[in-house]
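Mods, move this if it's the wrong board.
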Amino acid sequence: CYFATRPINAGGGNASPRTLLRESLRSTTAKLDQLSIDVLNWQADRRQLVSIVAAPLDRVEQIREIVGNSKHSLQRLEPAANALISAAVENERNERRDRLVTRVFLGDKSLLSVMTKGTRAIHWQSIPLPQGDEGSGIVSIVRSVEAAYSACGLENPPSSVRIYGRQELEALIDRQWLMDNLPDDFRWLDSPSMKPEHIARACADNFFASDEDEFDFVRGHREPLKLSRVVPYKEIVLYLVAACALAFVLFDRLKQTES
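Not the wrong board. Structure tokens:
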């Protein structure tokens, strides 16, 4: 999906999502009616920023149909990067949550790098993971992502790097070479990574956190929850049956006592 963060002037955040996306794309011919768009307004380094995310509408509807076929309703749909950031920050509870960090999530065949401030994504890129030269791939994407800091409205680039997943690669890459090519403050952690199970867990945790101040491709057209999924009818019936049985036993014992 498309993602960008840009500084805005006072009042600029009141523009429609389509207007903001068109300005970000710098195109008047983009078919915005075929995209699902979401926008978040926030602040960093005392500057007002807007983050814009867009995905093909047919892809969103395809996911909605798959969820519907499983007898569920689609209540939230966010980029995987967004969920992974939240999971990564949650795992690092001892660190400041508002610091600038470049996070690199490794998969079997790809890697995703995200420049973040706390749980907020600023800029991200994804590339194939070079087999046999993974270290160069990591360094290259970190530099590429961090080079966008000024265009995204930040005063300084991140001074920290976190690498997640594929820890078996850490022993195969010259650590001194990594130290020479990455910021001094870098760490390699086990999770969350680009593994499907890590992404699924991160998305589920974000959903149950019920934070509306996050990206959501179905924010404006979320399906209503079915009453049968909100009200536990089966449990209510079981409780009523149990209560009636208990009342019958107590009434029977009361009659025996009186007689």
